[in-house]
Design brief:
alpha+beta, two-stranded antiparallel ribbon, four-stranded antiparallel β-sheet
């Protein structure tokens, strides 16, 4: 009986995690009205998680999700909004720091257990590498003016 409760709990947690994953398909399902007003070419891009110059902010969110950061740039031409989409990489594919009480294993530097009962504060809040996947600049009308993408 205890095994069936454990499996049931694992199934619930797994379903909750999958429900929290945002993909173009799940975002399209949540906002069919935004998707329906796009041309067939634009729909194909959004479905594949791609964007194009001229897309409005809602369409970019449909394709890429919410930005990780938003900045404003002010020039003589006026103010533009820039959306940043980033990804985090760790050394050797491991999470370097999992919170103040995080402990774990790592390769290199002698390997073995690290962090002790209080974690390893040296790495607190510092991911190994931060890569900006996309930088999307909008014009004053809220349309994509430029797209920078890491290659």
């Amino acid at each position: 009986m205890k095994t069936s409760h454990a499996l049931y709990l694992v199934a619930i947690v797994g379903a909750a995690l999958l429900a929290g994953c945002s993909t173009p398909t799940s975002r399209i399902r949540e906002h069919p009205d935004v998707f329906a007003r796009l041309t067939p070419d634009q729909q194909a891009l959004v479905t594949n998680g791609q964007i194009a110059v001229g897309f409005d902010m809602q369409t970019v969110k449909l394709a890429l999700g919410d930005p990780d950061a938003i900045t404003l740039q002010t020039t003589a031409m006026g103010q533009t909004q820039i959306w940043h989409y980033v990804t985090y990489e760790t050394y050797d594919g491991y999470v370097i720091y999992g919170g103040y009480y995080g402990r774990g294993w790592r390769r290199g530097y002698g390997g073995g257990y690290w962090g002790g009962p209080w974690g390893d504060p040296y790495f607190a809040g510092y991911p190994a590498r931060v890569h900006e996947r996309f930088r999307v600049t909008f014009d004053r009308t809220g349309r994509v003016q430029s797209i920078q993408q890491e290659v």
